[in-house]
Amino acid sequence: MLQAVLFDFDMTLIDSSDAMLNSFRLLSERFGFPPVTRERLMEFIGLHDEAYWREAIGGISEEILDYYRQVCLPSELPLFRPLDGTVQCLKNLRRRGLATGCATNRRTGDAILRQTGLWDLMDCSIGAGQVPNPKPAPDMLLLAMEKLGASPECTVYVGDTDLDVAAGVAAGVRVVALTTSTDEKTLHRAGAWRICAAPSELEGLLAGEGLLAPDDGNCRPN
């Protein structure tokens, strides 16, 4: 039986696309960068820091970073929202006795988890700022499992990019990939164990694989 289910952040727990696109609109207006489309955003949304900015706008300077922190970041927070089905998915998994956590290539996702009401549904939250290497390295997943007391064979990682899949494979866990940002063929090729379209499908998928304890409603409070 499973002990824990870990989740990526962007486009797995949280629909961050509107927030990010708004920031790129502001950056484009201020610095003259070509606009970033939603389709283009999905190609690099899971990257960490320098790689993210390099793919988005060709790189980052101190001037751009200062503007992003002072102007763009404050405008992002109200635009983040949980993906459809996320809250109920987390509550259902926790009711079945599973630990739940977040592992993200953001330096931290804590403030957004609080803003969106997901913080109280997390047993741990690991960002790239807490480990030596971001995904696709397995560092943050290994740290999350250590904190939760979960073994790799009893852990599932849910993500939406080939980086997420690679990190999960390297950590020795099963990876369920969502098609919220990346196509099914790419996720299969990366080594995803199972693929589904939305968080709302996760509980049924895991139950169908015989990995969940019976749902008697008494395992743990949400």
UniProtKB/TrEMBL annotation:
GO terms for biological process: DNA repair. Pfam families: HAD_2 (PF13419). Coiled coil: none annotated. InterPro entries: HAD-like_hydrolase_sf, HAD-like_sf, HAD-SF_hydro_IA, HAD_2, HAD_sf, PGP-like_dom2. One of its GO terms (molecular function) is phosphoglycolate phosphatase activity. This is Haloacid dehalogenase superfamily enzyme, subfamily IA. It comes from Jonquetella anthropi DSM 22815.
